[in-house]
Each structure stands twice: as C-alpha cells, then as structure tokens.
Design goal:
The chain is of the alpha+beta class. It is 27% helix and 28% strand. The chain contains three helices and five strands, in the order αβααββββ.
C-alpha cells in the first residue's frame, strides 16, 4: 500500500512540471544597435571621428586590417517586443582616415 501511494505521489509530482509556463528568458543583445536613421546619415567621405560620433565605437577592429571597422549586432532569446537593429553586420572601409566603402550584410 505504501509503495503504491509513493508511486502515485511521484507520478503526480512529475506530471505537474509540464503544467507550468515556460521560464522567462532575458533577451541578450550584444553589439551596436544601429537604426535606419543612423544608416541613412552615413556617407562615403566622412572622417573616422564623424563615423564614431554617429555610430559609436565599432564592435570589431581587425589587427591585420585596421582600415576595416565591423559593427555587429545580435540578439539571443528575443521576445517579440524586443527592439531589433536594422543592421546585423555593417562593414566600413577607410583609406587615410576617410570612409570609402559601406557594406551592409
């Protein structure tokens, strides 16, 4: 009798776990949040300081290609109402401190 009551209690306890709602997951955003407005203000011919003022510090500056700046943005476990970036990967190329190429992937 005790064994059957123990099995019944165990089965009810384990089945109750499926009834609970999913746990809240915090959206983890990394990188530079770039809006369409900021992207539209970006122009070839701008200086490095103007780009930094407009977009902020780049997420990645390669040691072997110091003239390439990468602005990367990712969100993990995003809820439907989480603000998303208009740009996920933006690569800017400079020559002598002047922006010469804009690649938006």
């Amino acid at each position: 009798m005790k064994k059957s009551v123990l099995i019944l209690c165990t089965a009810l306890s384990l089945s109750a776990c499926g009834i609970l709602p999913d746990a809240y997951k915090v959206p983890v955003s990394q990188g530079n949040l770039i809006t369409q407005e900021q992207l539209s203000q970006l122009e070839v011919g701008m200086s490095e300081s103007q780009v930094t003022y407009l977009l902020g510090t780049p997420m990645l500056r390669d040691t072997f290609k110091p003239n390439e700046w990468h602005y990367v943005y990712t969100i993990l476990h995003a809820a439907p109402d989480t603000q998303k970036s208009d740009v996920n990967d933006l690569m800017l190329t400079f020559s002598n401190g002047v922006l010469i190429q804009i690649e938006n992937n």
